[in-house]
Design brief:
The structure holds 2 protein chains of 2 kinds. Chain A is of the alpha+beta class. In chain A, about 30% of the residues lie in helices and about 15% in strands. In chain B, about 35% of the residues are buried. The chains are: A alpha+beta, B alpha+beta. Bound molecules: zinc ion (4 copies).
């Protein structure tokens, strides 16, 4: 039943560990090499600075023909991330291409933390607040970061 | 850098095992392309030695038009490579109305004799992988060329060795060398070494050992720096049978085929890859194939073996589930109700696995099907992709599918009660061939007035499509019941794409499946449009006599 792990996944995993991206880590599970524990640092200068966000990432059978499945485990106040941690990011959907990789996807997610886009919201309530009272929204995002995203 | 000085006629020095006669004899007999091909076919890996085969190695990256190392290489649709600056003057093409994209109007005649086809200018973009390779090579050479003043050696050049004619040319001696590879490359880069020219290196006993070691060092350095460039961006392995798209991006043939199953866009630059390019007729990137075979034959054969092994458990065997039922077309929806246990099992396996299965039409008159003979199905089928499946309480499944691509059954058998087969994907001919066909057919002398088929043959692709679209508009105006809103909700509006229109038309038109099946084996857009146009002509002639009757065919 269990098919051998494709060379591509092995190489991507190796490179993630041998050439890590600053502020991002991705560790495969021992019992399932397609499942990764991901940690992304909030970008400096953003309202998520100082936080460490945990995500789960799963490579489906048809990866890289289909994008990785990924969601936030850490609670986060962000217009493009919903309560279940699902992320609204084009490269995870229609704009996925097999030439992208785990590394580029995680970088895109980190960039999304640095540049919330309330015009393309997944979380309507947060997006509304972001558009109507940005200072308040940023304040809430900071508070949530302190509350939920502390480094362990 | 005082590289060349005129000297006397060529003389091959013997002794010290430095004679080049072995290579020379071979080279005299064969053109380099043939040499490369012979090397390729050679079952046992035979790489080109850094020192002994320096000339052959450099030739692999010399443009056959200008003899310089490729400058912004462009790999043509036929798989041959030339510099961008060496692409011949283009001209306007005529008699082409489909797809009529900007840039496809301009074309040039391929300078490679084995090809000599017209290549649309827009199909010829800079080859990204080869460009990066050439940059890396130039960098490594530049690094080592600085050592050139300190490594004395001598060389002699050059003799025309193609066509078996020996034209003594100026022989050159060189005072300073950094090994044969760098020397040969630099000569080529300065335009002093014709691609066809052979070289003889005069051995200098006191340094030959060093020189050879230096070549080996340089080559391994090159291999190291270029390693990542020759990895496929989809499978992360060494590219196997690399195919370069019109936009200049290169993947393994298998990887590109898989990508095309999911999307019509280049995975690297996301440009549309036009109509389903039949990868069977897509040429491999010859320069890259020859380079990989020459530089790392062991790695290439190891990769080929691994893939063959993988496919033995898959592709080669009866690995496609087949459902003998009804007709379906690419891009069109098919709804199925599956209740027989053996098909429920098949469906479950498909849903858990590839989410695809092949559907074949029942061959009720047992008409012979090519090599397969009179089997109970028609041998051209449709690969259905499962969009949605719903399991009812009684074990019946309702599934929604969409036609992905056509295939032909090459072999078939039975597994757990349902049919399985080895299938071969059926694609349209490449766009260039489609265009050539249109130009050819539309330029024929006019057909006789009663030659209906002949008249259709001479119509442009655009007009054939318009004929179908006009018919739909007229039928809608008459509220034909096969064009009711309910039908359009399921099948969508008539597509503008001439390649897809016939499939849509056949899906909605109430004629026999045996008649519609004629579309399944087609390999050109025109062939399909001519079939739909002939249906329309027949319907119209019937209507002529039967006024309002809606009985068709
Ligand atoms: Zn050509
Ligand atoms: Zn050239
Ligand atoms: Zn590949
Ligand atoms: Zn591309």
């Amino acid at each position: 039943m269990a098919a051998p792990l494709p060379k591509r996944i092995i190489k991507e995993t190796e490179r993630l560990q041998s050439e890590p991206v600053p502020g991002i880590s991705a560790e495969p599970h021992e019992e399932n090499a397609r499942y990764f524990d991901v940690k992304v640092d909030g970008p400096s200068g953003s309202c998520y600075e100082g936080g460490e966000f945990q995500l789960e990432l799963f490579l489906p059978d048809d990866y890289p023909m289909c994008p990785p499945r990924i969601r936030f485990l850490t609670k986060i106040y962000h217009p493009n991330i919903d309560r279940l941690g699902r992320i609204c990011l084009d490269v995870l959907k229609n704009n996925w291409s097999p030439a992208l990789q785990i590394r580029t996807i995680l970088l895109s997610i980190q960039a999304l933390l640095g540049a919330p886009n309330p015009e393309d919201p997944l979380n309507e309530a947060v997006a509304k607040q972001w558009k109507e009272n940005q200072p308040e929204a940023i304040k809430t995002a900071r508070e949530w970061t302190t509350l939920y995203a502390q480094k362990k | 850098m005082n590289l060349l000085q005129a000297a006397g006629p060529l003389s091959v020095s013997s002794g010290e095992g430095q004679s080049y006669s072995g290579v020379n004899e071979k080279a005299d007999l064969m053109r380099q392309d043939e040499l490369a091909a012979a090397e390729q076919k050679n079952a046992s890996p035979s790489d080109l030695g850094a020192h002994d085969d320096a000339r052959a190695l450099v030739r692999l990256i010399q443009c056959s038009r200008c003899s310089l190392p490729f400058r912004m290489p462009v790999t043509l649709p036929c798989g041959n490579t030339i510099c961008r600056a060496c692409v011949p003057q283009s001209h306007e093409r005529e008699h082409i109305s489909y797809p009529d994209l900007p840039g496809r109007r301009q074309a040039f005649r391929c300078p490679f004799q084995q090809c000599a086809e017209e290549h649309p200018v827009s199909d010829c973009n800079v080859d990204v992988v080869l460009t990066k390779l050439m940059d890396s090579i130039a960098e490594v050479v530049a690094k080592h060329a600085s050592a050139i003043e300190r490594t004395p050696a001598a060389l002699e050049a050059a003799e025309r060795w193609d066509e078996g004619v020996s034209l003594p040319e100026k022989m050159a001696t060189q005072e300073a060398l950094a090994g044969r590879l760098v020397t040969t490359y630099l000569l080529a880069a300065e335009g002093k070494l014709a691609r066809d020219a052979q070289m003889d290196y005069l051995p200098t006993p006191e340094v030959s050992g060093n020189e050879s070691a230096m070549d080996v060092t340089i080559l391994s350095e090159l291999l190291e720096t270029t390693q990542r460039e020759v990895d496929c961006q989809v499978c992360y392995n060494l590219m196997l049978d690399p195919v370069t798209t019109f936009c200049g991006h290169t993947l393994c043939r298998n990887c590109l085929a898989r990508v095309l199953d999911h999307s019509q866009h280049c995975p690297v630059c996301r440009r549309g890859l036009s109509i389903a390019p039949s990868l069977h007729s897509q040429a491999s990137n010859k320069t890259l194939v020859n380079l990989l075979n020459g530089l790392c034959p062991e790695a290439v054969s190891a990769r080929a073996e691994a893939v063959a092994l993988e496919e033995a458990g898959g592709e080669g065997g009866l690995n496609t589930s087949l459902f003998v039922c009804t007709l379906g077309f690419p891009n069109q929806p098919t709804f199925l109700r599956i209740f027989e246990p053996r098909y429920r099992l098949m469906l479950r396996r498909c849903v858990e696995g590839s989410k695809e299965f092949g559907m074949l039409m029942y061959n009720r008159y047992l008409e012979p099907q090519g090599d397969l003979g009179p089997v109970h199905f028609y041998h051209y089928g449709i690969m259905l992709r499962i969009i949605h499946s719903q399991l009812l309480a009684d074990g019946t499944s309702l599934i929604e599918t969409r036609g992905a691509y056509r295939f032909r059954v090459k072999a078939h058998g039975v597994m757990d009660g349902y049919a399985v087969g080895n299938v071969e994907r059926l694609d349209d001919v490449p766009l260039v061939e489609e265009e050539r066909l249109e130009a050819e057919e539309t330029s024929l002398p006019p057909a006789a007035e009663d030659d209906l088929a002949g008249q259709l043959t001479r119509m442009s692709t655009k007009d054939l499509l318009a004929l179908g679209q006009d018919f739909i508009v007229r039928m809608q105006a008459r509220s034909a019941n096969w064009l009711q809103q309910r039908v359009l909700d399921i099948h969508g509006l008539p597509p503008d794409d001439a390649a897809m229109f016939p499939y849509w038309f056949a899906s909605v038109l109430p004629i026999s499946d045996e008649e519609k099946y004629k579309l399944m084996g087609t390999t050109t857009v025109r062939q399909r449009l001519k079939i739909t146009a002939s249906w329309i002509r027949r319907i119209e002639s019937q209507r002529w006599y039967q006024s309002n009757s809606c009985q068709i065919l």
